[in-house]
């Protein structure tokens, strides 16, 4: 009897599964490799039920895998990952996010020669991070580069950041994150609950967490309204700073000029209603929200994070201001509201097509697995 060939196995290690860019990249990889068995391990800060719902199969939770540095937990996570590699016998390991990237690559090297693909939606070093923190994580990534068969990064800016850190360009592949991009704005934008008619609308779309700087939206709106008195701000997202943001809005007397909408899906009606979008993040890889805005024909203002200028180069309309320059962002938004009404789609979104993304992932995985077998 001819033995049945064993299906290939991919082991994914995810520091934290919530709602975000790195989680989308995991879903893209699983969809791209439909003929592969996937074992997904998420850290203890994850929403395991959400991951199971998104992926369509149960995930494993490693209670020792945590996002913040905790040496005792980190050592136990390393041991459990080594044991899992021996049990699963994967053909490839994919690490998602920084902590899993460290633990997964060390575990793989000390367990055998399983190739590791490190998936990145952003860096944890560079502008937007403290100098000491940035130097440490840049050094860590340089040290781990020899243990990494390949990297898949979301954009060219992010790829250059890792090249400068010491990663060989031949190991870096740019693969976008699949996104449901809105169609261009219809002639008559739909009404959106909570947003009044007849007022110019600024939209902020993203998690209400420290990296995204949602509390800066209040001084930004005040400055915009000094120039465009009827400007209205719609904030879509959820996160740990939601209550603090509401308190800031109330303290500033802006409760009639701001709508905090919570998690919004689909985002297309909100973007079609927008006259401008703002992104105040400290760090990104390639902000999906800017691609979504550009696809809808909405001009944007963004801090100068990785990927913002890349989206502009693809044909989007907007401007980039220095990190932390709230006043500059407000002035640019006020200028947009006065002079640049939203138009039609001008950005090239071809590289965000799901089939393009899936084909790219298959090529990368085939290359790293093939190279490991030859070696």
Question: Any chance you could write out the topology, listing elements then pairs?
Answer:
Elements: E1 9-14, H1 21-32, E2 37-43, H2 48-55, E3 60-62, H3 71-88, E4 92-96, H4 98-111, E5 116-120, H5 131-144, E6 150-153, H6 156-165, E7 172-174, E8 201-205, H7 217-227, E9 232-236, H8 242-251, E10 258-262, H9 268-273, E11 276-279, H10 288-296, E12 300-303, H11 308-313, E13 318-321, H12 326-339, H13 354-374
Parallel strand pairs: 1-2, 1-4, 2-3, 4-5, 5-6, 6-7, 8-9, 8-11, 9-10, 11-12, 12-13
Helix pairs in contact: 1-13, 3-4, 7-12
State the main characteristics.
alpha/beta; Rossmann fold; 2 domains; 13 helices; 13 strands; 375 residues; 41% helix
Can you describe this structure?
This protein has a 7-stranded parallel sheet, sandwiched between helices. α6 links the parallel β6 (150-153) and β7 (172-174). It has 2 domains: 9-178 and 353-374, Glycogen Phosphorylase B (Rossmann fold, 3-Layer(aba) Sandwich); 201-348, 3-Layer(aba) Sandwich (Rossmann fold). α1 (21-32) packs across α13 and α7 (217-227) crosses α12 (326-339). 41% of the residues lie in helices and 16% in strands. The chain contains 13 helices and 13 strands. By secondary structure, it is of the alpha/beta class.
């Amino acid at each position: 009897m001819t033995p049945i060939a064993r299906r290939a196995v991919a082991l994914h290690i995810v520091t934290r599964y919530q709602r975000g860019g790195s989680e989308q990249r995991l879903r893209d990889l699983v969809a791209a490799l439909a003929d592969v068995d996937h074992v997904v391990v998420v850290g203890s800060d994850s929403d395991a039920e959400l991951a199971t719902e998104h992926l369509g199969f149960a995930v494993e939770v490693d209670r020792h895998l945590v996002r913040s540095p905790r040496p005792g937990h980190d050592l136990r996570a390393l041991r459990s990952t080594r044991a899992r590699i021996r049990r699963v016998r994967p053909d490839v390991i994919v690490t998602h996010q920084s902590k899993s990237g460290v633990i997964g690559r060390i575990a793989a090297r000390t367990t055998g020669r399983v190739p590791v693909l490190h998936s990145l939606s952003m860096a944890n070093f560079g502008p937007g991070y403290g100098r000491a923190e940035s130097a440490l994580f840049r050094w860590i990534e340089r040290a781990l580069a020899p243990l990494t068969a390949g990297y898949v990064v979301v954009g060219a800016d992010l790829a250059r950041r890792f090249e400068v850190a010491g990663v060989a360009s031949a190991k870096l592949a740019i693969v976008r994150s699949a996104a449901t991009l809105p169609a261009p704005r219809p002639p008559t934008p739909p009404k959106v609950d909570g947003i009044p008619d007849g007022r110019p609308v600024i939209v902020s779309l993203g998690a209400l967490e420290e990296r995204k700087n949602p509390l800066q939206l209040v001084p930004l709106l005040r400055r915009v309204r000094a120039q465009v008195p009827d400007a209205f701000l719609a904030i879509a997202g959820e996160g740990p700073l939601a209550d603090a943001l509401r308190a800031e809005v109330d303290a500033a007397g802006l409760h009639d000029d701001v709508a905090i909408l919570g998690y919004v899906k689909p985002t297309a009606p909100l973007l079609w209603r927008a006259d401008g979008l703002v992104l105040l993040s400290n760090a990104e890889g390639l902000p999906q929200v800017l691609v979504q805005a550009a696809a809808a024909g909405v001009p944007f203002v963004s801090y100068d994070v990785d990927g913002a200028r890349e989206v502009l180069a693809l044909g989007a309309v907007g401007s980039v201001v220095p990190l932390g320059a709230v006043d500059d962002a407000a002035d640019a938004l006020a200028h947009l509201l006065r002079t640049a009404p939203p138009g039609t789609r001008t950005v090239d979104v071809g590289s965000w097509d799901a089939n393009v993304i899936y084909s790219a992932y298959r090529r990368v995985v085939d290359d790293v697995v093939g190279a490991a077998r030859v070696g």
